[in-house]
Amino acid sequence: MTTLIKLAAAAAFTLAMGATAFADDMVLKFGVAAEPYPPFTVKGADGKWTGWEVDMRDAVCKQMNVKCEWVETAWDGIIPAL
User: Fold this and answer.
1) Contact (CB, 8 A) for 72 and 32
2) What pLDDT sits at residue 46?
């Protein structure tokens, strides 16, 4: 039984280290309509997105410890982009 516990602990450690290494290089992409949709997404004069969805995305990315970026897509291009 002790060997099984040691083996499980070693496997968990290996998976945790692999997940951490993968997360450092990972970029999570979020799609957003190029048109603003307040209060969810609004593109400012400086070109940065603000709004509720942006705040939610930032919180998710911070919790996951990954880099995130927006991918702008016009509504008429959403189906072809799939």
Assistant:
1) yes
2) 93
